[in-house]
Design a protein that fits this description.
Layout (H helix, E strand, L loop, with lengths): L2 H9 L6 E5 L4 H6 L4 E5 L3 H15 L4 E4 L1 H10 L4 E4 L12 H15 L4 E4 L2 H10 L4 E3 L22 E5 L8 H14 L4 E5 L4 H9 L3 E2 L5 H9 L3 E4 L8 H8 L4 E3 L11 E2 L3 H13 L1 H16 L3 H16 L10
Parallel strand pairs: 1-2, 3-4, 4-5, 5-6, 7-8, 7-10, 8-9, 10-11, 11-12
Helix pairs in contact: 3-4, 7-8, 7-11, 10-12, 11-12
Length: 335
Amino acid sequence: MPAALRQYAANVPDVTHMLVAPSSELKIARAEGTFASLHALPDGHLSRLRTLKAVLAALEPDLVHAHSSLAGVYARLVAQCPVVYQPHCFKFTDPSLSRLRALAIRAVEMCFARRTRVTVALTPHEERTAAELGASVVARLTNVPSTVHLGTDVPAEAPRPRVVTMIGRVTEQKDPRFFADIAALARVELPELRFRWVGAGEDELERALSDAEVEVTGWLDPARVAGSLRESWVYMHTASYEGFPLAVLDAAAAGLPIVVRPIDAFDGTTLRRVGSAAQAVEVLRRLVYEEDEYASAKRISRDLADSATPVKQRDQLLSIYEIAVRPAVGIGGAR
């Protein structure tokens, strides 16, 4: 289950939160007790639609907050209450999609845009994209670090092992092959560096990482993720498209220099960006040998972490939910 959903429930205790998600994603939520009730979705799209319709009919919620593109489709097909839709990166922006498939997914988003009370954007790019799709109301939401309360901070003087870390599901979106290419090139030019991927996923992509001598940890609980960040030297986020990843904010809260791809999610930030494995290794080389470069990158991370606070997120979510439950008349002409 996305850590963001647990954050929302924890940061807005004024609201009763009930979680509907695939059963495989409910384990952590059940252990934490953050949600008032948990409801498992079965496999298969039709089965999920039927189950979601029945759950919503029984719960009669004031609104549904749909997190992810697929959840947005389900909710807007069956919900009889207002829907807050948070794509967390629009799927049609996936650069690996064929043009025809991307256009088809975009068309679906346009059809559903007018059936959405509030569309939630994590970045200026998502905000612009939602408006282009015809969303009636678009609201910005700030993500916040998910592990800062678990002690990711390390004193400035504490030495860090030379570990370059990436956190995320091992899927095409996160581009583990790009991370593997960086690791393979760095093994020749910067042999003192070690590379670690925190997460799990597709077997073939995990093998690509292992073949490049990247340590793949599998899924870790939040406390162990925080521990892995404490043991890291640089955070390298290789996703080819994103909303705004919590992992980057967790790395920022841990005081790590952060290197990312030049993708729309990071517009407006001053994070170091690389478009190739060779560029990534050159940035890593400067971070190894130039103390001022490393200190500058750490300051950028600290500024990013300081801009993302639970209080700010709470206020934004309350505003979004208040807009969503207002009578539909007068909200951008919707309904």
